[in-house]
Amino acid sequence: SYFEARSSQCAAAGVAGLVGNCTPQEVLTQASSRFRCVRLVDLNFEDLADNAPNPALSALAEPCKLRACDAFISHSWHDDAEAKWRALLAWRRDFHSAHGREPTIWFDRCCIDQTNVDSDLRCLPIFLKGCRRLVVFCGETYLSRLWCIIEIFTYVHMGGLVEDVQVQAVVRAGREEEDFQSIMQTFSCFDVAACRCFNAEDKHRLLAMVDVAYGSTHVFNTVIRGIVSFVHMSIHREISASRSFAATGCSSNPELEIKTE
Fold first, then answer.
1. DSSP secondary-structure letter at 230?
2. Phi/psi of residue 134, each to 5°?
3. What is the pTM of this model?
4. Average pLDDT, the chain
5. Strands 166-169 and 134-138
6. Which of 48, 78, 106, 227 could bridge to 141 as Cys pair (CB 3.0-4.6 Å)?
């Protein structure tokens, strides 16, 4: 409902205020004007090869109203690019099959203003709630990146249900079982304090936010580990689908384009 959505946005604004050290109203106003999305069909494999600033990619993103974007893409830039591209193609194929159209997504490399990164990072919780669903592309390094964990934290803090998160396994072709076991190992030994963040000051502030919200990082670690059974099931489904796809003789080339017409 409108009131539930508004309450959720206000809660997200509170989290954003903690992240950016500003008032919730300031963040809401700023995020509403800065929210953008991009069509997944307009991206290609090279766009995932690295996260170096690229003005041409930023130009692909268009202004978007909150809650009008189909999916917030949560991923780690340190996971295998080819495996991630295959996972994105698989998710896009499923979305098109279910909805009969191309999905719009919030994807950091396109939708963060590279000339004002700090302002957009401050708005990240609002951007997350501005999307209709959270899609986690989980590879071996996903749980080691603090910003990825904060995205999960924000989703849960806003009252999101774990079973509503869409999970795509980021596993290399021909090494699915090996990568799957590595991913599950990262869940079993997860410790938010050990997560890495490019900016040390950001890590200190984000860990303090988690501590305030959950009472201790130990409690938060328990919450994240509680997702294991759901992710385990979701990733196994992805591996089975990948094997079935390969059995048809179709190419697993990451450059594969989905034909929708």
1. H
2. -105, 125
3. 0.81
4. 81
5. parallel
6. 78
